[in-house]
């Protein structure tokens, strides 16, 4: 890995961060020219660290998460994943498409504002989806799903479908689904955007506690400044550029 050309917004550490981005930029072509959604963003996130990214709509928060998780390719810049069992640091942005898909399925969990649950599946079946995609055995799937639902306090709702659950419960199913593969990175895009303030606080407390207990490196975007109190660190995006909060 080459020496950084852009100083990351992070805390000095003797160990490699779980997630590291350097000089990320993303431009989109339009009829009026290019729109720069993200410009020269660098950051590091350690295990058990909850980083909250704030900024107005259009500041580049969702674009940043898409690039960190390999859901989109940057116009320039690179993303690394570290902290694996063998201590290897791998560049996500340099991986072949098939390898990147495998990494996303097993090492990166995603939580979305709109919950993203399959309406015809039960809570347990929704949580099970990533394990099915990974071709995990039936016995292990059953055990992991039960543990994930227990971790978010929904064991008694395993057989209910999304329309039978409250918004907060649906988002907890989304969190269980994101963590059932035991990822090392969690990316959450406005996870409390559709929740009332009380439920949002409960969900964010749950995320924080799970991140710390499982050693996950988490990046969460939000519009709500009250949620900053749950973060280990707050970063601010302004016009696609990242500053320390």
From TrEMBL:
GO molecular function: ATP binding
Residue ranges of domain ABC transporter in the record: 19-245
PROSITE patterns: ABC_TRANSPORTER_1, ABC_TRANSPORTER_2
Gene3D superfamilies membership: P-loop containing nucleotide triphosphate hydrolases
Domain of life: Bacteria
Keyword terms of this UniProt record: ATP-binding, Nucleotide-binding, Transport
InterPro entries: AAA+_ATPase (IPR003593), ABC_transporter-like_ATP-bd (IPR003439), ABC_transporter-like_CS (IPR017871), ABC_transpr_LolD-like (IPR015854), MacB-like_ATP-bd (IPR017911), P-loop_NTPase (IPR027417)
Keyword Nucleotide-binding: yes
Name of the protein this chain belongs to: ABC transporter ATP-binding protein
Protein species of origin: Isoptericola luteus
């Amino acid at each position: 890995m080459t020496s950084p050309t852009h100083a990351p917004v992070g805390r000095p550490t003797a160990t490699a961060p779980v997630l590291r981005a350097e000089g990320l930029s993303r431009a989109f072509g339009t009829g009026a020219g290019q729109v720069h959604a993200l410009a020269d963003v660098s950051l590091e996130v350690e295990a058990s660290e909850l980083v909250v990214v704030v900024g107005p709509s259009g500041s580049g928060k969702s674009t940043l998460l898409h690039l960190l998780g390999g859901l989109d390719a940057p116009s320039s810049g690179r993303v690394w994943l570290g902290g694996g069992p063998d201590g290897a640091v791998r560049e996500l942005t340099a991986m072949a498409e098939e390898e990147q898909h495998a990494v996303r399925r097993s090492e990166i969990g995603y939580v979305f504002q709109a919950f993203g649950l399959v309406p015809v599946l039960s809570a347990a079946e929704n949580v099970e989806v990533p394990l099915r995609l990974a071709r995990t055995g039936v016995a292990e799937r059953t055990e992991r799903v039960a543990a994930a639902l227990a971790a978010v306090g929904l064991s008694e709702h395993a057989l209910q479908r999304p329309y039978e659950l409250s918004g907060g419960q649906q988002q907890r199913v989304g969190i269980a689904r994101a963590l059932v593969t035991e990822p090392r990175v969690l990316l959450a895009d406005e996870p409390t955007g559709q929740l009332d303030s009380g439920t949002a606080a409960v969900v964010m407390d749950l995320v924080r506690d799970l991140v710390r207990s499982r050693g996950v490196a988490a990046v969460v975007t939000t519009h709500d400044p009250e949620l900053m109190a749950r973060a280990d660190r707050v970063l601010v995006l302004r016009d696609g550029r990242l500053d320390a909060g």
